[in-house]
Amino acid sequence: MARAKRNIKKQAKPEKYLAIVEGCTEENYLKHLKNLGTHALGSILNCKGGKARSVLLEAIKKYEKYGQYYKGYLIWFDADEYQQADHTLHERLEKTGVMDIFISSPCIEHWLLAHFETINLYANQNCKQCETRLKKHIPHYKKNDCTLLERHISIEHINMAKQHYAELANIPAKYFQL
Q1: β-strand 41-46 against 17-21: which pairing, if any?
Q2: Is the dihedral of CA 20, 178, 168, 24 positive or negative?
Q3: Of 37, 40, 78, 116, which is the most buried if we count CB atoms within 10 A?
Q4: So what's the pLDDT on residue 6?
Q5: For the chain, what are the domain ranges?
Q6: Topology at the third CATH level for domain 17-176
Q7: Is residue 42 within 8 Å of residue 72, measured between CB atoms?
C-alpha cells in the first residue's frame, strides 16, 4: 500500500530574539520589560550566575544548535566576571553577525542604579558600592526578587537609564521599543 505524501511546510523563522543572560537579575529585568509592552524577545535562558565564560559558551552552543533560526541573540553578563581569556569567545560570537553582546560594568546593579541617578561610567566602581547605592532607591533590594523591579522601575526610569548608560540603552530600545 502506497503511503500518502505529507505536505511538510518549512517552519517559519520567528521574529523573536533569544536572550542568554548571566543570572536571575538580568532575567527578571527582561521579564519586567516584556510585561511593559511591545517586545521582540522570545525565550530567556538564565545561565544561573557564574562567570561570563559560561554565558559565552552557552551562546555558542545555542547558535550551533539554532543558527539563524532566531532573529538574533541578546547576550548579557557582568564585567566583574569577564576575563581576558573570554575575549576570544566574545569575538567569535560577534563574527556571527546575529549576536548583540551587552556587558554591565561592573555589574547589573550599576545599570539598575542608572534608572534613578546619574552615574559615572568611568569611575572605578565595585558591585558592593553599586548595590548599597541602589538600596537607597529600591529598599530591601535582593538580586533574585523579581517583584522589586516591577514595583520600582517604570518606563520613565527606563528612559532615564538610557540617557545615563548608553552602552546598555539598546536593550530597552531595540528589543522592547521603549
Answers
A1: parallel
A2: negative
A3: 78
A4: 42
A5: 17-176
A6: Rossmann fold (3.40.50)
A7: no
Work out the angle between the directed axes of helices 87-94 and 52-66 (0-180°, nearest 10).
Answer: 30
Q: What is the pLDDT of residue 74?
A: 97
Distance of CA 6 to the CA centre of its chain: 40
pLDDT along the chain (178 residues), means of 10: 44 81 95 92 92 95 92 95 90 94 94 94 87 95 87 95 93 90
As a whole number of angstroms, the distance between CA 166 and CA 95 comes to 22
CA distances from 77 to 7, 107, 139 (A): 43, 8, 24
Sheet strands (E) in 22-113 = 41-46, 72-78, 99-104
Residue 48, CA distances (Å) to 56, 62, 87 in order: 13, 16, 21
User: What distance in Å separates the CA atoms of residue 31 and residue 159, rounded to the nearest whole number?
Assistant: 17
CA-to-CA separations, 164 to 111, 121, 168, in angstroms, rounded? 9, 9, 9
Distance CA 119, CA 174 (A): 22
**C-alpha dihedral sign at 88, 94, 95, 98:** positive
C-alpha cell at 139: 529598599
DSSP 2: P
Tell me what pLDDT residue 143 has.
Answer: 83
